[in-house]
Amino acid sequence: MAAELTSTKLNAESHLLLDQPLLRLPHELARRNFKSVQRIVEREREHIIPALKEAANGSLAGTQTPDQTLASLDAMISRMQGLKRKMETLHEEEKRIQTHSKRRIQHLQDLYKIQNLADVKYEEWSRTRLDRLLVDHMLRSGFPESAKQLAKAKNIEDLVDADTFVQCQRIAENLRNGDAKEALQWCGENKGALKKSQNTLEFELRLQQYIEMVRTGQPMKLIEAMQHAKKYLSQHIETQSVEIHRAAGLLAFPKETNAEPYKALEVPFRSFSSHTSRATIITSSTTITHCSFRGLVCTQNTSLPLGICFIEHQLSISDDLGVPHLLDGTERARQTCSICASYEKLCGERFDHSAEREKLWARTDTRNE
């Protein structure tokens, strides 16, 4: 009996490891909102204090007429009223973020009130979590309206990040339509994060704008392209020298040239998803993906079609899961080590890469036949 109770005891900490993104995004949004407030206040302070001193000194010294002093004060009052409106908007955003954070913390805190997996409260909590994972997956898969309807029906709107995903998808759609304006605006708002991560998204967008101008082949557009390059691309010459020289070479080749590497540059608005995923705190892999891996590992059944993990190759979920996904770079290696370690700990044996690889190839050959 004691062994049975031990086996069904809930380990809340292990759940929190998978649900870290639930709190990470609101925290990052709150930090950015605070930075916006700080930046706006500093900018207004740098303008208001000198203007106020100038008006006061001018009035005392008699170098300004009363009308000039009143006009100066009216201008300062107008700026402060504008600052107040901005602060009210940012305050409402902060309250919204805090509401989301409070609801999410409470959702995770409920785990610590559940003693074991047999508790009916755990089933209710798991259903809420499953709904949240489904909404998250739908948002990442490009079905925002369905995701919003599900979140509303299940009353979990504070537990999902629909607005953030919708904004990202809107920017991506605009890029596919050849409009980089909103993407560049996003780069301006997140300039610090882009610089810290050495992300080249803004340069890529400016380069693509240049390419689009050159692709028209119109003389006026070519002149505009050269001015654009001088203004936006030349400042990156130390780090992006090869790309800039290739872009300059486009001017010497006709439209729809077959000469490489210039032909490759003329692809209409290329994909920037890899840059945005590195610049934002929205990870490229879904939580439902991670849960699927852990769930398969925890079955302790080695005959199940596990997604094979190779350190030196891409990690993919098997087709049996119905959620194809690719991980790359450091994230791939981290997930690989994590999955293998979990398997070895739970199943009491080492994860045999070669054996599982042969199983995967055998299943693949059977399907192809």
UniProtKB/TrEMBL annotation:
GO CC, one annotated term: cytoplasm
Pfam families, per the entry: CTLH
Domain CTLH: 164-221
GO MF, one example: ubiquitin-protein transferase activity
UniProt entry tagged with the keyword Zinc: no
Superkingdom in the source lineage: Eukaryota
SMART domains, per the entry: CTLH (SM00668)
One example of a Gene Ontology biological process annotation: proteasome-mediated ubiquitin-dependent protein catabolic process
Keyword Coiled coil carried by entry: yes
Coiled coil regions in record: 73-103
Alphabetized UniProt keyword annotations: Coiled coil
Classification via PROSITE patterns: CTLH, LISH
Known role: Involved in the proteasome-dependent degradation of fructose-1,6-bisphosphatase.
Family: Belongs to the FYV10 family.
Protein known as: Protein FYV10
Species of provenance: Talaromyces atroroseus
